[in-house]
Amino acid sequence: MKKSCLFMLAALGFSFASFAQLNILNAESPEEIGKKSQAQVQNDANQEPLDYGYVDDRDILWAKTTWEYIDLNQRVNFPLLYPLDKTSQGRKSLFEVIIDAVKTDQVTMYMDSYFHQKYPMDQLETNLSVKVLNDAGIAAENAGEPLEEWHYSMAEIKPADVHAYKIRGYWYFDKRQGELKYRLLAIAPVVISAQNKLQQQENPDLEVVPVELFWVYYPEIRKQLHSNYVFNAKNTAHPLTFDHLLNSRRFDAMIYKEDNVYGDREVDEYIADNTLMQLLESNRIKESIRNFESDMWNY
C-alpha cells in the first residue's frame, strides 16, 4: 500500500508543482501570477487518476465492508471542509466538487450506499436551496401588492454547512500480493437540508439532525476529484488531489457500521445511549481488521 501511494505521488508530481502559485517566480507582473502556460494547460487536460489494478475474486482471501463517519470538526479533516469560498488559486471544497459533478450529469446520485435507487435531481435542488413567502409576503400577496425580495425567507446549503462525510469502503486481503488493502466504494456529504435550515433560522431553539444528502459511487467521481486540489500544509508547493487524499486515507474516521448477519445494523443500534462504548466498539472493529493481516504472518 505504501509503495502504491509513493508511486501515485511521483506520477502526479508535475501536475502538483504546476498548480501551486503558478508562475510566481517567472512572472514579470502580478497579473501573470496564477496563469498557466499552454504546455501546462495541455498537460492538465491529459491527467487521469491512476487506474485501480484488476483483482480477481479468487485472490480475495478475506474481506469486510465498513461504513465510516468523517467528522469535519476535527482539525485533521479540515482539508475536506475548506476552502469555504473559492480561492484565487481555483481551489474548491470537496462539497462543491461533488455538487458540480452531479449537476453536470457526470456522476449519478443514489439514495443509499447500496446503490439500489437513484436520487432525483429535483429533490436535490429542493434540499440545496429553498425560497418561500414569509408572513409579510403572504399578506402582500393577499392584498394584491407586488412582491419584493424581502417578502421571501430563503435558505441555501453552502460548504460551511457540511458537518461530515460518510464513506463506504471494502477491506480485503490480496493473497497474491500478501497484503491488506482498502478500496473506497461510496461517499456522501452529511448536511442539514435547506428546509430544516430555514426552520432553524426562524426558530433558533429548534434542534435538527444532519443526515446524508445523497450517495455517489466513488470510482465514478474519481476523475473530478483528481482534477481538484487540497491544500498541503506540509508543502504548499505540492498540493494533493482529493482522490489521492481519500484513497491514501489521510483523514480520521469512526466506523459506525460493518457488514453483519443482522442486516448490516449500525453500532448505535446495539449499543444505545453510550457514546463512549460506541467509540470503543468502533476501535474494536478497526483492531480486528488490523489484526487479521498481522495474524496471517504468525506461524
From TrEMBL:
A Pfam family it matches: GldN
UniProt entry keywords in alphabetical sequence: Signal
Signal peptide limits: 1-20
InterPro entries: Gliding_motility_assoc_GldN
Top-level taxon of the source organism: Bacteria
Protein name as it appears in the record: Gliding motility protein GldN
Organism of this sequence: Mesonia sediminis
